[in-house]
Design a protein that fits this description.
It contains no helices and 10 strands. The chain is an all-beta fold. 15% of the residues are buried.
């Protein structure tokens, strides 16, 4: 799940439950990360506390105008709920300026398929999709990055 996510264990009665599910408890959301049978009637469910964010994906497409000149156009593709988990924060002093680099892992529903270099806006900040991890059968995870001059 990434760095900085609080883990919680729940004990629940046996029911139809899988890692496709999530819990909502006391107003917070929890991704299920493990389900273990304890005793005959209960599961011990390990979950990661998360806070869904509204994410908007845009892509830059290049078309040609009437004079055959390339024109870049930013188009919104989709909006979806996603969860950010911390991956890495860095700082590099470069001459004559400094650069702040923030990387997160964006966890999305399996149906959300992003491409490398897609732009994802979350709470007014635009991130660039760097790496896609799509082998998990329950969700996709994307490493996203934003760099700022300091």
């Amino acid at each position: 799940m990434g760095i900085g996510v609080k883990s919680v264990k729940f004990t629940v009665r046996k029911q139809d439950l899988s890692l496709f599910n999530a819990f909502r408890w006391k107003g917070d959301f929890y991704f299920l990360t493990d389900i273990a049978e304890i005793k005959r009637m209960y599961y011990e469910v390990t979950a990661a506390r998360i806070e869904p964010k509204i994410c908007t994906v845009t892509r830059i497409t290049v078309t040609k105008n009437e004079r055959k000149n390339p024109v870049k156009r930013k188009e919104i593709l989709l909006t979806f709920p996603g969860c950010l988990v911390e991956k890495y924060m860095g700082y590099a002093q470069q001459k004559p300026q400094a650069v702040s680099e923030i990387q997160y892992v964006l966890v999305t529903p399996k149906a959300v398929a992003l491409k490398l270099a897609d732009l994802v806006e979350i709470e007014g900040v635009t991130y660039n999709v760097q790496i896609a991890h799509t082998l998990d059968q329950y969700k996709n995870e994307y490493e996203i990055l934003v760099q700022k001059d300091v």
